[in-house]
Write a structure and sequence with these properties.
With 52 residues, this protein is an all-alpha fold. The longest helix is centred in the N-terminal third of the chain and has 22 residues, at 3-24. 81% of the residues lie in helices and 0% in strands. It is elongated.
């Protein structure tokens, strides 16, 4: 695991926590969708950059 993939995966998980928080606060659905797309992109990019 290199540093960039670790940072991207952790950032994606941080965004997932934000999604849960925003959903509990009844934020606009468009904001939640935008944050979930960003979280998915971060996690997928981090997983694809893993050097196995």
């Amino acid at each position: 695991m290199n540093g960039l993939s670790t940072v991207l995966i952790v950032l994606g998980l941080f965004f997932v926590g934000g999604i849960i928080s925003f959903a509990k606060q009844k934020m606009p659905p468009s904001l939640i969708v935008l944050l979930s797309i960003g979280a998915a992109l971060c996690i997928v990019t981090g997983l694809l950059q893993l050097e196995v």
